[in-house]
From TrEMBL:
It comes from the Eukaryota. Keywords: Coiled coil. Pfam families: Muted. This is Biogenesis of lysosome-related organelles complex 1 subunit 5. The keyword Coiled coil applies. The lineage of its organism: Eukaryota, Fungi, Fungi incertae sedis, Mucoromycota, Glomeromycotina. Residues 119-146 form a coiled coil. It comes from Rhizophagus clarus. The keyword Cell membrane does not apply. Belongs to the BLOC1S5 family. GO terms for cellular component: BLOC-1 complex; transport vesicle.
Amino acid sequence: MHKAETKNIVRDISNFYDTIFNHPKENVEKEIKTFVREFELNKNGREEASLHKCIVYTQDAPDKYTDGVASLSKKLTGVNEKLQDAKPTFETLLSELTELRQNHQSRSDPYQKERKEFLKGIAKAKKNYEEEMKEREQELVKEYRIVYNLM
């Protein structure tokens, strides 16, 4: 009995080896087709189950949500009325705020203009000073070159 089992094992191994290594392209194509077929079968089953769940949810939806929609509608009507009442108040507050901003800007404008002019003057004076220093430096370089060349 042990020899029979060994023969079966050897035969199975040789069949497996022959299948895998002697015809690999055909076997790979068969495996791919089998995989795709199984995937499509499972996919269709999942899609049907998902569609069935959606149908159940949509059939139950009107019963579950009708009361909620009605109460929300009532609350939103009340909110809309409150918004309409509050709108004039906010419009007056907004106009007062813009007026205050304009007044604040008109008060601080002269100082800002003077400060900007002052800063521009300082920047211009600094630029002129730097240019003058560069010119003097160039003159000194020329003088020392002349003195150095004479020595």
